[in-house]
Design a protein that fits this description.
Blueprint lengths: L6 E7 L3 E9 L5 E10 L3 E2 L2 E2 L2 H19 L5 E6 L5 E10 L7 H13 L7 E13 L2 E4 L9 E12 H13 L3 E7 H9 L2 H6 L1 E6 L4 E7 L2 E2 L1
Parallel strand pairs: 1-6, 6-11
Antiparallel strand pairs: 1-2, 2-3, 4-5, 7-10, 8-9, 8-10, 12-13, 13-14
Helix pairs in contact: 1-3
């Protein structure tokens, strides 16, 4: 097997099966699937790890199958997370503009301010901070404020949280299988990116992912998860 530079690997650790998908990133930034692998999963209940050894073995089998099909060596993966422990809340952030024109730094500061407003108990962690709307001065409904002139930038974000132990257990299983976790992605968010078009997300759509142990629902309105 060879080690390719421009590949990305997704790992879906489900209640009834574990799937690995290998994609090659093309010049136009699209992804060409070059390998898949799956194996029966018996170490999870409702999206949460209950048997680590069994889960690790299933991950290894699924990844090995994907490696053989793609003829590449897999060292790191993006893995999904779901389950009843997932929660969400809204938050707002506001910053003054230093140059009278919105920069990337201003956008990051506004989002970071909104993130800091989330008060979480010690057993919860933030998985995603998803901007829904920006406001420059009194101009609402802005999707991308970069370059817009003003004196104040506000942002409304959707904060997705999960149980710390659930995320840690998933990461430990992947690590014990000999892989690095690049990032942990909310499963409905990943599923939406795979099956929904930008037009569908803009017009409004409900994405329902019916799994063996959990059913995940994502509601999209005006291009954002609500």
């Amino acid at each position: 097997m060879t080690k390719k530079e421009h590949i990305v690997v997704g790992l879906d650790i489900g209640t009834t099966k574990i799937c690995a998908v290998v994609g090659e990133i093309l010049a136009d930034r699209s992804v060409n699937v070059i390998g898949i692998g799956s194996h029966k999963s018996t170490g999870l209940r409702k999206g949460m790890v209950v048997n680590m050894d069994s889960t690790v073995e299933s991950i290894k089998r699924a990844v090995e199958e994907a490696e053989l099909m793609a003829a590449v060596q897999i060292n790191s993966v993006y893995t999904g997370i779901a389950g009843s422990h997932i929660g969400s809340e809204s938050a707002q952030g506001e910053v003054a503009l230093k140059k009278r024109e919105v920069t990337k730094s201003d956008i990051k500061r506004a989002v970071d301010t909104a993130r800091a407003c989330a008060v979480l108990p010690p057993d919860r962690q933030i998985l995603h901070v998803l901007p829904r709307e920006f406001i420059v001065d009194d101009q609402e409904g802005i999707r991308d404020p970069l370059g817009i002139a003003g004196s104040r930038l506000e942002v409304d974000v959707h904060i997705v949280t999960g149980a710390v132990t659930s995320a840690q257990n998933l990461a430990r299983c992947v690590s014990r299988a000999g892989l690095d976790v690049v990032d942990i992605i909310l499963q409905p968010l990943a599923s939406s990116a795979a099956v929904l078009s930008p037009e569908e997300r803009e017009l409004g759509v409900v994405m329902v992912d019916i799994g063996g142990g959990t059913t995940d629902v994502a509601i999209w309105v005006e291009g954002c998860i609500r």
